[in-house]
Design a protein that fits this description.
globular, five-stranded parallel beta sheet, 352 residues, 2 domains, 6 helices, alpha/beta
Length: 352
Amino acid sequence: MPTSRSKIDMVSDDIKIKPLQRHKVCVIGAGMAGLASARELRREGHGVTVLEQSGDVGGQWLYDPRVDGDDLLGAAEPPVKVHGSMYASLRLISARENMGFTDFQFAPKDGLDGRRFPGHREVYLYLKDFCDAFGLMESVRLNTSVVRVAPAAGPTLRWTVRSVDLGKCDGDGAGEVEEEEVFDAVVVANGHYSQPRLPSIPGMEAWRGRQVHSHSYREPEPFRGEVVVVVGCGESGKDIAMEVRRVAKEVHLVAKSMEEVTQGLAKVLAKHSASLHLQLHVERLCEDGRVVFGDGSTVLADTIIYCTGYSYSFPFLDTEGAVTVDDNRVGPLFEHVFPPSLARRSPLSAYP
C-alpha cells in the first residue's frame, strides 16, 4: 500500500544540494568577530588563516597601555600606529551573559573578576579560553599586519593578501618584508574602534592647549590639576569625565543637547557640581586657550578630550569600488555583512 508523502518531501526531491567545497579563507583580525568567524569556517571544513597585527588575540579587549605620543588627537592619515583604544578602568556595560557566544558561556571563574559587569581583562581571558577550547591558535598568525587586500588576476575572483611580519621589523618599520598569499575568500574583521572620528570645531588647529582623542586616553593622572573639557556625552565621555574629575581642577562635560542628559547623569552632575560642569555645544576654540560654549560662556582650559567616536576604516582594502565607506556607512552589504556584487564571483567576502 503506497504511503503518503508530505509536500516538503516532494519539494526536497527537486533540490540539488551541492557538495561542500573547501575554500582557503583569510580572516583579518583576531578579535571577537574574527575568532567567531574562524571557528565557524573551520567547522564547515574550510582552511582558515587568521592574520592579527598584535602579539596576542583579543582585538580591542587586549589592553595596550601605549599611546601614539606624536598624534594624541589621531588626526594623521589611517591607520593609527597604536590599535588599542581601551582605557584601564573600562568595565562592561552589558551583562556577561549577553556578551558570550551562545554555545560557550561567559561564566565567572574562580579567582577572576566574577562581577556581572566585569572589567575588560575578563573578556580578554574569555576569548583566550574560547581559542583554546576550539583549537583556534593553530590558525592564527600573530604580529602580522595586513597592508593590502585586492582582487587577484584570473577568471574566478580570488584575493591577494599582502602582509608584513612585524616580528621581523624594527620599531621604525625598517627591514619590512612584504609577503603575498592568494585566498579564495576574505573576512574583514579588523574592528571599528581604532580610527578616531573628530568633530569640526572652528579654531581647533590654532588652539594652544593639549587636544586628545579618547583613543589615546588610558588613565587620569596626566590631567592632574588641569581644567579639562570633555567633548561627547556617550558612555566613554561620561566614564572619562568622572574619572578625570578626581584629579583635575575642574571638568566641563559637553553634550550636544539636553536630550543626552539622562536622569542618572543629572544626579551625578548635581552631586559633583563643584568640579563637574555640564556645557551644551562648543562654539569655537580661541588661540589663547579659551573654549567658547554655545551659550557664550567661556573657560580657559588646559586640555580637551574628544570622546566623539570612531570612523570605519579599511585602509588596506581595495574592492575596486564594490564596497565603499560614506559617513561611517559601509555598503552596499547584504545583512550588513556580504557585498552583493561579489556574491557570484567570490565564495565569501564578509565584514563582521
